[in-house]
Amino acid sequence: MKEKRHSMNNLTSFQRKFFLFLLLLIILNLMCVGCDSFKNGRNELEIPKSTQSYEKKDIITFKGEVHEVYYQGDGNLLVRSSYDSCIYNSDGKLIYKDSDGVLASYILGNKISLIHNNETSFYTAIDLNTNEEIVFDHDYLPSAYEDGLYVVRENPTAKYGMLNDKNEIIIPFQYESLSCFDKKGLAIASKDGKLYGAIDKNNNVVIPFKYNFLYPFDLRMAFSGSVGNFFDDYTQTYDYTRAVVNREGEECIIDRKGNIVLDLTNSEYKPCRMSGYRCGGLGLIPVTLDNACGFINMQGKLIIPCKYNKICTDFFNGYAVVTVGDDSGLINSEDKKIIPFEYYYLGPPDQKGFLLAKKSENSPYQIIDLAGNIVYEAPESHMIEEIGGGFFIEKMPDSASDTEDEKESREITVFTFNKK
């Protein structure tokens, strides 16, 4: 008996069309993965229940003058004071304390901290997971790190280049500023009097050096300072970015080859000057139209209508802080109201979905979640600072009349929360 073979020829016309339809859906789905540069995006943190409660967990308490506390991005906390610099884990356990050097006030990467030796003036990068160290030449000041490459300033020339883990020069020292390479291999650089462009890993110019400013394509580099610690996922890279054309602030949208996609100068929408943090989240651009604010995507399509008085922050972890009148609230990328417009101050949500808030100028600080639940309310005389990763700092405000004894006895507490 002959074996019966199944093929498309054995199928009915309806079955063939059905299977072809399924195949087409699969192909379209694969094409959309990773190529949604124009997509509105829904990288939103989950909103808790309105009945969710929390318990405060103190991580570390200090006495005396603490200059800075940084969340390092992988659960570690960098603490600098007048006396020493230390790194603690998320449970408050001391995992590194400086001895001959001083930990720098910034972190090179999620796993790398920078140490300055006071005696030799050499800088050392230490991987806190492996304890591997790289000692740099005394003329080199590392400023950033990603994927095995250090962005370094050469002190005699004040020019930037890149070194690898073996201290070998990968990008020569010829730039006035330089970013890390993003996930698709471009680094933003400036030269010739702060004109911006982009290079590849072979130091070839990909985008000409002709812009007054060039926003990074990579979410990881689209923010600065402590705001960078509000993200754990730094892998989001776009195929389009904003370029400032001249000193008058005229802007355009360009692709990764420098081609102009959208001329904002001649668009009905004008770039919005935000009052708070900028992070480049979701590839949406804050704009104004008729003195009202909204968001367009990189193609110039209006995503969120221009109806807000002010944009305080663009999209952090899927949400943006905007104002109606003088009151701040929170929206998502579909313009859905998440937090009501009833706050004098509202900070961006961190990785855990916590936001720092104040109902009025003189009211106490609150920490709320994405459902608007009050997670914690500080005593009226206390200050609260957000540092990312679900961590906050609580302290008494400084006063010019404080004595040295009062400064030494003042407590500063780093804390977080657990769900009940």
Uncertain ranges: 1-8, 28-41, 222-226
SS-based structural class?
Answer: mainly beta
How many strand elements? 36
Count of runs of 4 or more consecutive helical residues:
2
Radius of gyration: 25 Å
Report the major sheet.
4 strands, antiparallel
Helix content: under 10%
Which overall shape is indicated by the principal axes computed on the Cα atoms?
A: globular
Strand arrangement across the biggest beta sheet: 1-36-35-34
Beta content comes to over 45%
End-to-end Cα distance: 68 Å
Q: What's the quaternary structure here?
A: single chain
Chain-averaged pLDDT: 81
Identify the notable features of this structure and list them briefly.
420 residues; mainly beta; four-stranded antiparallel beta sheet; 6% helix; globular; disordered N terminus
Q: Your description of this structure?
A:
It is built from two helices and 36 strands. With 420 residues, it is mainly beta. The strands form nine sheets. It has a four-stranded antiparallel sheet. Strands 2-3-4-5 form a four-stranded antiparallel sheet, with no helix packed on it. The protein starts with 12 loop residues before the first helix and ends with a strand.
Topology:
Elements: H1 13-32, E1 54-63, E2 66-71, E3 77-81, E4 85-88, E5 94-97, E6 101-107, E7 112-117, E8 123-127, E9 133-135, E10 140-146, E11 149-154, E12 159-164, E13 169-175, E14 177-178, E15 187-191, E16 195-199, E17 205-211, E18 213-214, E19 240-244, E20 251-255, E21 260-263, E22 270-271, E23 285-289, E24 292-296, E25 302-308, E26 310-316, E27 319-324, E28 327-332, E29 337-343, E30 345-346, E31 355-358, E32 366-368, E33 374-377, E34 383-388, E35 391-395, H2 404-409, E36 411-419
Antiparallel strand pairs: 1-36, 2-3, 3-4, 4-5, 6-7, 7-8, 8-9, 10-11, 11-12, 12-13, 14-15, 15-16, 16-17, 18-19, 19-20, 20-21, 22-23, 23-24, 24-25, 26-27, 27-28, 28-29, 30-31, 31-32, 32-33, 34-35, 35-36
